[in-house]
Amino acid sequence: MNFRHLLATLSLALGAAFTHPAIAADTAVAPDNAPVQVAAADTNLGTALAQGAGTSHKAATGDAVDNPYGLDALWKGGDFVARSVLVMMLIMSMGSWYIIVVKALEQARLRKHGRAAQQSFRSAASVQEGAGALHERSAYRFIAESGIEATRSHNDVDDHMDMNTWITTSLDHSLEQVNARMQGGLSFLATVGSTAPFVGLFGTVWGIYHALTAIGVAGQASIDKVAGPVGEALIMTAIGLAVAVPAVLGYNYLVRRNKTAMDELQVFGNVLYRTLLRTTRAKA
After folding, report:
1. What mean pLDDT, rounded, does the chain reach?
2. How far is residue 268 CA from its own chain's centroid?
3. Least confident of 54-63, 66-75, 174-183, 225-234
4. Who wins on pLDDT, 6 or 133?
5. How confident is the model at residue 100 (pLDDT cuts 50, 70, 90)?
6. pLDDT tens digits for 20-55?
7. Rounded to whole angstroms, how far apart are CA atoms 92 and 251?
8. What separation in angstroms does the CA of 282 have from each of 147, 275, 277?
9. What is the Rg, in whole angstroms, of the alpha carbon atoms belonging to the chain?
10. Is-contact 114 268, C-beta < 8 A?
């Protein structure tokens, strides 16, 4: 029995000796191969992300470059009528802004000349001296010189018109000339403000007509085929409103400023009239 037990013990020892080195070898090799597998997986993931980012960038760039809608497409794809409407509204807009800026500067200069006229005539010894101190292009100087000329030329007038009526007529005529000069260009603003929206609407109707015709010929009525051309046509209405609104606002602003300036000129004309009449009677 003891001999059998000894043989069994030796058999178990030999089996353990041959089995444990294989397990140890597998255990030792596994940690060396694991980092290689993880690194390979990371490399594949980075390559996939880079390819995805490049594809997304190309798609975004292609959408930005190949956008078939907008003002550029409207001009390139429009016919003679559509381009004529765009050019007409551009001319209206440029003309409106030019008149608004020029008239605003003229009114500012007129108010400056008005303050100078008050100071000049307040310190002048005579009407002639006060008028001579004003700017050559001043409306106040023009009115003053008209009144002075009226007093000098009264002798050449029919005796039925007295000095009072003659001076009044001359000053009123001068004020009307100044008012007409100040009103110049305002009719253009009124015309643009009232017609530009309808010009833009005409361009919209024309563009929608051609867009629907092209869709009918192509035989496709999907949303991408309809929304683009119709949206481009609606831009015409937006442009018409963008042209009309500044023209209307500028017209109202200039008319209000002209009224204030003419009231100041009327006051100056009344003071000048009384001064000239008093001076003429004193000389007589």
Report:
1. 75
2. 40
3. 54-63
4. 133
5. very high
6. 444 444 444 444 444 444 444 445 545 544 455 454
7. 14
8. 16, 11, 9
9. 46
10. yes
DSSP 210-279: HHHHHHHHHT---HHHHHHHHHHHHHHHHHHHHHHHHHHHHHHHHHHHHHHHHHHHHHHHHHHHHHHHHH
DSSP string, the chain: -HHHHHHHHHHHHHHHHHHHHHHHHHHHHHHHHHHHHHHHHHHHHHHHHHHHHHHHHHHHHHHHHS---SHHHHHHH--HHHHHHHHHHHHHHHHHHHHHHHHHHHHHHHHHHHHHHHHHHHH-SSHHHHHHTS-TT-HHHHHHHHHHHHHHGGGGS-TTS-HHHHHHHHHHHHHHHHHHHHHTTHHHHHHHHHHHHHHHHHHHHHHHHHHHHHHHHHT---HHHHHHHHHHHHHHHHHHHHHHHHHHHHHHHHHHHHHHHHHHHHHHHHHHHHHHHHHHHHH-
Specify whether the CB–CB gap between 95 and 192 falls below 8 A.
yes
Q: How far apart are CA 23 and CA 15, in angstroms?
A: 13
Q: Distance between terminal CA atoms of the chain? A: 172
Question: 243: Cβ–Cβ under 8 A, 6 or more apart, which residues?
Answer: 89, 92, 93, 96, 192, 196, 200
Question: In terms of Cα–Cα distance, which of 161, 177, 140 is closest to 269?
Answer: 140
Distance CA 161, CA 168 (A): 11
Q: How far apart are CA 188 and CA 196, in angstroms?
A: 11
pTM above 0.90, yes or no: no
2: pLDDT strictly greater than 60: no
